[in-house]
Amino acid sequence: MRSNYEMSDLALKAAIGIGLDLRGENNPYLKAINDLSKELYEFSRTSEKKASSTSELMILAGVIWPNKENWKGKKVEDVLLQTYLLAKNLETISIATENEKESIKSICLDLQGQFSHYMEQFRRSLVA
């Protein structure tokens, strides 16, 4: 998976592109949507053992289940499955309903926020 900075940037561009599409405007961010989908597909194919030791797993789990109480009983394979489904939704965004697009746009914004938050936490740990 790309760096957290690049993933944050891709997720933001994807959200903007989906928002433009919802307003019926030209979407210059189709490549970002496709690239984000590919990155998420790639991560969803990661072995459970390898995925369990990555920051991306925690970031994605935080987006999929924002309330940490909902993490109880979840396994790495659950995060990988939900990541795969998100990638598929991004891949087929052009045929999604307006409500589905709104939901996916919101997820992309959450994803961008989580990657940005993680980068900031990491940066602060280096300074301290």
Task: Summarize the topology.
Elements: H1 4-22, H2 30-44, H3 48-51, H4 55-64, H5 76-91, H6 98-127
Helix pairs in contact: 1-2, 1-6, 2-5, 4-5, 4-6
Short description:
This protein has 128 residues and is mostly helical. Helices cover 73% and strands 0% of the residues.
Notes on the structure:
- The chain is mainly alpha-helical and 128 residues long.
- It has one domain (4-127).
- Helix content is 73%, strand content 0%.
- It is globular, with a radius of gyration of 15 Å.
- The chain starts with a helix and ends with a helix.
Record keyword descriptors for this entry:
single chain; 128 residues; 6 helices; mainly alpha
What is the SS-derived class?
A: mainly alpha
Number of strands: 0
Count of domains: 1
SSE string: HHHHHH
Proportion in β-strands: under 5%
Question: Into which percent range does the helicity of residues fall?
Answer: over 70%
Largest sheet: none
CA distance, first residue to last residue: 27 Å
Radius of gyration: 15 Å
